[in-house]
Each structure stands twice: as C-alpha cells, then as structure tokens.
Specification:
This protein has one helix spanning 5-11, and strands at residues 18-23, 26-36, 42-46, 52-56, 62-65. By secondary structure, the chain is mostly beta strands.
C-alpha cells in the first residue's frame, strides 16, 4: 500500500523538529515534535510554554517545518 504525501511527511519527522500546523493558510499551532508513532500518523507537539498536544495526520492540518519555535 502506497503512503500519501502527508503521511510520508509526518513519518519523516524526528524528535525536536520545529513545526507549524496550519489550516487554510492560518497557523494554528507551533512547537517542537516530542514524539511520533512509528507509522507517522500521530505526533505529540510541545509548544514554547511546555503544553503538549496530540495531532493525527487525518486532522487535516498542513504541516510546515520551521526553523525556530519562537519566530513569528
């Protein structure tokens, strides 16, 4: 079975990668990857104040890899 482009991107994430999750071009959440399931479908992201949140690949977020968790 062939992986979607979105799943392939999520599977490539590593702990510590700084990412932004967006919907319709609007940033909804920014932080660093804390953990990822082996299949790449679920990630846990910790923001700059230490809140940890779970995201699923089917939540329909666009994922952008960012250089700095604190940048605007």
């Amino acid at each position: 079975m062939r992986q979607s482009r979105r799943v392939s991107m999520w599977t490539s994430l590593q702990r510590g990668d700084v990412i932004a999750l967006c919907r319709q071009g609007i940033e909804c959440y920014r932080g660093s990857v804390d953990e990822r399931t082996e299949d790449g479908r679920v990630i846990w992201v910790t923001d700059q104040i230490g809140d940890r949140r779970l995201f699923h690949v089917e939540d329909d977020y666009d994922l952008l890899i960012s250089g700095d968790v604190y940048s605007d």
